[in-house]
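Can you give me the bound-state structure? Components:
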Amino acid sequence: MANRERRADRAKPASPRTEPRSSTGDAPMDRWFQQQLSLLYNDVVNEPLPKEFLEILGKIGKDKTPS
Amino acid sequence: MDRTESMPESNDTASFRQEDLLACIPHLRAYARFLTGNRERADDLVQDALVRALTASHQFQAETNLKAWIFTILRNLFYNEIRKNRLKVQSIDDIPGEGPATPPTQDVNLEFADFRRAFWQLGQSQREVLIMVGASGLSYEEAAAICGCAVGTIKSRVSRARRELLKILQEGNLTYKRGDSEPPSVAQALHVILDRKATGG
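Here's the bound-state model for the whole set.
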């Protein structure tokens, strides 16, 4: 899976709809925790997509095109 | 491996758009990465999940969350693989590199590097809930549906995982040091574990 051809432009950084409740009762700590977790996650989300994924979708798209 | 070879003809009654599925792929990759701890295995899993989603697209209900649906598919594939092959649930071979791409300051970079290391010291199920609820944007309810458990179970797992991670950071129990330029090898990590056992730690 070394080939990467396209940035995942469609991927938007995720923001949770329901934030975990504070387990520490410390709002700044909760915000910091959330921020670190988002950084970790978005590092992967923003990686370029391997071409194999696009090929799978492309193949399906082609199958659906009327001949 | 061409995973589309074994695919039946595409289903014209698909109730989601291809572009919606495309938009889910980066999130699916991230979920798989943090679930498996291994880049290649995660991407193989994503490919399998995509094929499965496309062949079963008629089963998707339009009013539900596509991301949650395909996360469920991926998770089921992952645990089926574990059961079938008795594969390692957790790998330390693919701990991502140091810090974010553009750290604002050196201190923040080091802080994030520590957070990342502490995160990878959590168990697979703790990483999974933190990623689902804390980062991927899924609600507790959606995460519970994906994991097939009660909402309260997810809440307590998230809470425990947060406490555990903060404890690792606060007590400085990081297995890997800040100065490590490369992720530790399996052998290095085993040495750490064996050393701890030998010293009763």
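A couple of observations. Residues 151-171 of chain B form the longest helix (21 residues). Chain B has two domains: 18-85, 106-198.
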